[in-house]
Amino acid sequence: MSAEATNPVSAAEAAVTDTGVRRRGRARLELRRIGRAALLGATAGPAPRDRLPDAISHVAEVHRAHHPEADLSVLRRAYVLAESSHRGQFRKSGEPYITHPLAVTLILAELGAETVTLTAALLHDTVEDTEVTLDQVRREFGDEVAYLVDGVTKVEKIDYGAAAEPETFRKMLVATGDDVRVMSIKLADRLHNMRTLGVMRPEKQARIAKVTRDVLIPLAERLGVQALKTELEDLVFAILHPEEYEATRALIAEATGSGSPDALAAVAEHVGTVLREADIAAEVLVRPRHFVSVHRVRLKRGELRGCDFGRLLVLVAEDADCYAVLGELHTCFTPLISEFKDFIAAPKFNLYQSLHTAIAAPDGAVAEVLIRTHRMHKVAEAGVVALGSPYGTAPDQADLPDGPEAAEDGERTDPTRPGWLARLLDWQQSAPDPDTFWSSLRADLAEDHEITVFRADAGTLGLPAGSTCVDAAYAQHGEAAHTCLGARVNGRLAPLSTVLSDGDTVQLLLAQDSHSGPSPEWLDHARTPAARIAITRWLQAHPEAAHQPAAAPRPPLSVAADRSSGAELHADLDGVPPAPVRPAGCCTPVPPDTITGFRVRGGAVTAHRTGCPAVDVMLRLGRDVVPVRWGDAAHCRVTLVAESFGRPGLLADLTEAIAAAGVEVVSATVEPPNEQRVRHTYTLQLTDAAELPNLMRAMREVPGVYDVGRTHRL
Questions:
Q1: Quick one: average pLDDT of 452-470?
Q2: C-beta of residue 457 within 8 angstroms of C-beta of residue 671
Q3: How far lies 630's CA from each of 607, 625, 639, in Å?
Q4: Left (φ > 0), alpha (ψ -120 to 50) or beta: where does 130 sit?
Q5: Secondary structure string (H, E, C) spanning 146-193
Q6: What is the rounded CA–CA span in Å between residue 617 and residue 622?
Q7: CA 180 and chain centroid, separation
C-alpha cells in the first residue's frame, strides 16, 4: 500500500501540479494518461454498464490475454468503487491517487494474476485511506476479496522509521501466512512506489531503497516472482549506487547502439537452425540482462563481450524436450560443463525449474542458455502469482504443476505456501523484540538455498543450506530441543555441530531429564533464527548455565585387555613360514566378519574388518595384502562401546544384561559424563561369535542406552 496519499485538493490545483511534474519529467507518461482518464471519468459520470471505464481498459485487455474466460464485470465494479472513494486524493507526484491502485493492478495482471487478486489490488487502499469499510467490500465482492484487502490493510502505513519498519514487516508476514497473494499485492505496491520515488527527498529514497533491498527483494526471490525482483533490483541499484548504475547504463548503451552485429542474436539464429534440423519444435529468444545482472557479470568477468549482455531462452512444449534440446546443444556446440545446472530434476525452493548451460560458438563467443517449457517459464517469471487462488483450482490453472486444492474439511489451506515462509511465521512469534526480529529476518532471507532432510519417523524438514543438527532439533521439536544430546546422521552418531546436506537422514536424541538445557556453544552452531532465538531465551532465563565451565574432553578410549580375540586366525603365505595373526585393535574383527590382513613389525599379521578405515590407509601406503581366514574355533573376544544417557543404576543394568546373555566381562571402562551422556566400553569373551548380534540387541534395550557398536577407530 502507498504512503503517498495527500490531503484532497481541487482539480485546478492538480492541473498546476501536473504541469510542474511534466516539466520535471518525473511522472511516467502512461500513468499521466491514466490519471487524466480517471479525472475525465469523474467529471463525465459513471461508465455505462455494458463497457469498462476507459481507465482500466488496458488492465482488462492484459487480464483477458492470460484468462480468456475471466468475468470482467467484477473489475468494473471494483474500479468504480475505488475511483469514487479515492476521488479528490492526489499522490505527491501530483497524479490522482487512483493511478496507484490501477498501476498495482496492471503489474499483477501482466504477471497473470487471477481476477480475485486483481479485484483486491484495485481496492487494497480503500479500507485504510477512505470511508469504505471491510464489511462493504465483503458484501459487494465476497469473502475472498475481503480477506485479501484485510490482509493488506493490516500492513499499516509505513513511515520508514527505524523502529516502525521491523514491526510493519512482522505484521506483513503474519497477514501473508494464510494467503501468499497478500505478499504479491504488497510487492506490486512497492514496485510502483519505487517507480515513482523521484518526488521524495534523497534521504527518504535511500531509506526506502535499503528496506526494499534487504527484505522485499529477497521475498520476491523466494516467492519466485522474478519479473518483480529484477525491476526492483534495478531501481534500488540506481538509488543506492548511482555511479555504478550510470557506468552500467553506459556499457549497455554502448553495446546496443554501436551498430556492430549482435553476437548473441547470431548465436540464437545458429541454435534455432540446429534445433530445426533435429526436428525439435522450440522458440529461441534473446533475453537481455537487467542492469544489476550486467553489473555482477562485469565484476565477475572483467571486460564484457557481446554475449555477456544477455542470455538465450529456449522454450519447448514438454519436459522431455528440454533434455532433447540440451543433448543437441552439447553435441553441436562446445559446452561449458561447469555452467550446467539441472533445476528441472531438482527445482529451487521458489518453484523455479529450468536447465542452465553455456555453449561456445565456433567464433569463440560463449552464450549462456536457459531451457524450459512454456509452463516453467510462466512460473519462473510470476512464481506464486501464476498459481492463482490457493483455495480452488481455476480452469486456466490446470496446466500448472501441483495445482492448489481446497481442503477437505473446508479450512483455509495454502499448498503454495513455501516451507521457508512457514518457518518465518513460527519463529516471528518467539522474537523478543522488533530489532531481533528484523536482524533475524534479514539473515534468514539472505539464505538463497534450501535443503531437505529426512526425519527418523519418515517426515521431512526443510532447512536453509548450512544448517546443523542444532537447527534440525529446534525445527522438529521446538523448545523440547533444549534437552537434545546428540544425533544420528545417516545412521551414525554425530555431534550437534554437524552441518547437514540435502537428503541426509537425521535422528535427534533427547535426554530424559526435562531440566537440562543448551550450552552457550550451541549458538556457534545454530544458523536458523528459530534455533538462535530459542537458545538465547533459555540462556537468558538460566544465567548460571552461561557461566558453567565447558565439559572436559573425553579421555582416549582405553580398553584393559590384550589384543587376542580368542578366535583362530590363519594367514595363507605360500612358501613362507607361518606368522602369528591377531585381530586389529582398531576394529576388533570377530567371526564371521570379512577380514583383510597386513604385515606389521616383527613379521606378525594383523586382520582388519574389510570396512575399517585402516584398510584404506594401508592400501594408500602400498602395503601388500595378506590373505587371512578364520579357523574352526567359535569363541572370540570383542570390544563394544555403549552410548547412553546418564542415570542411576545404568552400569548395573548393563552388566546384568551382559551376564544374562552368558557372556564374560574381561574388562570395563566408564568415561566421565559429558553433557549428560556416558560412554561405557566393555571387552567381552563370547563362547560363540554368532551370539554377538543378540548381545548388542540386549544391551540396546537397556533403558537409557541409545547406541551400541564395536570399536572402529584408527
A1: 82
A2: no
A3: 10, 16, 18
A4: beta
A5: HHHHHHHHCCCCCCCCCCHHHHHHHHHHHHHCCCHHHHHHHHHHHHHH
A6: 9
A7: 16
Catalytic, 691? Answer no
Q: How far apart are CA 93 and CA 694, in angstroms?
A: 81
Three cell numbers written together for 319? 519436459
Q: Which of 54, 128, 150, 156 is flagged as catalytic?
A: 128
The per-residue pLDDT for 158 is: 40
Asked if 352 and 107 count as a contact pair (C-beta separation under 8 A), the reply is no
708 close to 641: Cβ distance less than 8 angstroms: yes
129 has catalytic annotation: yes
Asked whether the CA dihedral 152, 154, 159, 161 is positive or negative, the reply is: negative
Longest dimension (CA), the chain: 114
Sequence-separated (6 or more) residues with CB below 8 Å from residue 397: 114, 387, 388, 389, 403, 404
Facing residues of 642 across strands? 680, 708
Residue type at position 676: Q
Per-residue pLDDT averaged across 444-465, rounded?
74
Count the neighbouring beta carbons within 10 Å of the beta carbon of residue 586: 18
d(CA 108, CA 383): 12
Using alpha carbons, select from 447, 459, 453, 537 the residue that is nearest to residue 499: 453
pTM for the model: 0.62
Q: What is the pLDDT of residue 118?
A: 94
- Cβ atoms of residues 237 and 249 within 8 Å: no
Question: 4-54, pLDDT tens digit by residue?
Answer: 444 333 333 333 333 333 333 333 334 444 444 444 444 444 545 555 566
Please compute the mean of the pLDDT values over residues 273-296 and round it to a whole number.
92
Question: Is residue 556 reached through a cis peptide bond, with omega within 30 degrees of 0 on the bond before it?
Answer: no
Active-site hit among 4, 125, 129, 444: 129
Q: Which residues contact 213 (CB under 8 A, 6 or more apart)?
A: 236, 240
Q: All 3 cell numbers of residue 398?
A: 490446470
The C-alpha torsion from 93 through 95 and 101 to 103, rounded to 10°, is -80
What distance in Å separates the CA atoms of residue 96 and residue 83, rounded to the nearest whole number?
9
| pLDDT above 80: residue 237 | yes
Spatial neighbors of 409 by CB under 8 A, at least 6 apart, are none
